[in-house]
């Protein structure tokens, strides 16, 4: 098997060399992005690039996830409607709602229902990874990068608070927030550990399902945080990519044979998405399963001259200019 460092080195020249021309400079200046980012968008978005760039300046609708562990969702709908909120059900989600309009008061994060843990404020695309993983009651699941706890809670809902979730977090300053969120939402089947995801094999446990919502550049969150237009350098991107590959290998090691892993990022960067999953398919022998019933574009076949495994078209990409949600990448992998 090719090791991670060799994989990175063999593709570095292709991934991290960039064109410079008048068109790229003009678009970068007009929309406020770094030039290297524009070059990449032109590679995989083509003539849809300007539509994407323009959409990054438009607000996205807020969304919430009803917490079925504490309240029937029909009751929550009625309570929020009485307060002046207008909700619409997210068609593909078991618990998700778009917030179509809100009253002046209270704000979404200041209602009694929110304080009691009856719902969780969460981006629409962020609800996709747990839904795709679809853990069953009684299974053992590991969330390898759990902060701030939203996806851990979602997994617990899908499992009806049964089975076991091991939630890992490497940053000790984030542990209190994760534990607070889990407690407020009534989760009782989860254990939160201060541990790097890369060290998961040290637990000596194998899991039925693995959720790896990997630390990333957040390049899909630009509509929510415009600073990300200029925040990430190519060197930063390399660092994220290396971490993601190491987390992926650790997740593979703790996954049972026949078990499933969701690899996801809140990034549209192919360097953090298809390039990482391509390693899992080509060198770990994992298979990509088709994601059905959720809106999105298929995974990329190639990027900057690098051909990816044909299976990667089964991955899912979301974009603000097409799906009106955050940019996200989701891939469902099975260990052979």
Automatic annotation (TrEMBL):
Keywords of the record: Cytoplasm, Methyltransferase, RNA-binding, S-adenosyl-L-methionine, Transferase
Keyword NAD carried by entry: no
Family, similarity comment: Belongs to the class I-like SAM-binding methyltransferase superfamily. RsmB/NOP family.
Parts forming coiled coils: none
Annotated TM spans: none
UniProt-listed NCBIfam families: nop2p
Name of protein: RNA methyltransferase
Signal peptide stretch: none
GO biological process: tRNA methylation
Domain SAM-dependent MTase RsmB/NOP-type stretches: 52-336
């Amino acid at each position: 098997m090719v090791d991670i460092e060799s994989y990175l080195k063999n593709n570095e020249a292709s991934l991290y060399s960039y064109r410079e021309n008048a068109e790229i400079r003009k678009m970068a200046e007009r929309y406020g992005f770094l030039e290297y980012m524009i070059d990449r968008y032109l590679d995989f978005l083509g003539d849809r690039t300007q539509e994407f760039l323009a959409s990054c300046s438009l607000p996205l609708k807020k969304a919430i996830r009803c917490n079925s562990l504490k309240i029937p969702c029909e009751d929550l709908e009625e309570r929020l409607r009485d307060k002046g909120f207008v909700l619409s059900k997210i068609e593909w989600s078991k618990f998700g709602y778009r917030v179509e309009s809100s009253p002046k008061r209270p704000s979404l994060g200041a209602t009694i229902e929110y304080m009691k843990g009856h719902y969780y404020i969460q981006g629409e695309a962020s609800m996709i990874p747990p839904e795709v993983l679809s853990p069953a009651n009684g299974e053992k699941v590991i969330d390898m990068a759990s902060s701030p706890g939203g996806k851990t809670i979602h997994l617990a809902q899908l499992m009806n608070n049964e089975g076991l979730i091991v939630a890992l977090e490497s940053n000790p300053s984030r542990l209190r927030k994760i534990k607070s969120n889990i407690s407020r939402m009534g989760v009782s089947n989860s254990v939160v550990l201060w541990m790097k995801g890369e060290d998961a094999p040290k637990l000596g446990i194998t899991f039925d399902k693995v959720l790896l919502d990997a630390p990333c550049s957040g390049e899909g969150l630009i509509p929510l945080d415009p600073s990300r237009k200029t925040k990430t350098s190519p060197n930063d991107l390399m660092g994220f990519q290396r971490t993601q590959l190491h987390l992926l290998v650790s997740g593979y090691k703790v996954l049972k044979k026949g078990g499933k892993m969701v690899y996801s990022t809140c990034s549209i960067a192919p360097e953090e998405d298809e390039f990482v999953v391509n390693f899992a398919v080509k060198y770990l022998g994992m298979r990509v399963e088709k994601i059905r019933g959720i809106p999105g574009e298929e995974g990329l076949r190639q990027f900057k001259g690098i051909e990816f495994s044909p299976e990667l078209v089964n991955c899912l990409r979301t974009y603000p200019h097409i799906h009106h949600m955050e940019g996200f990448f989701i891939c469902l992998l099975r260990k052979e």
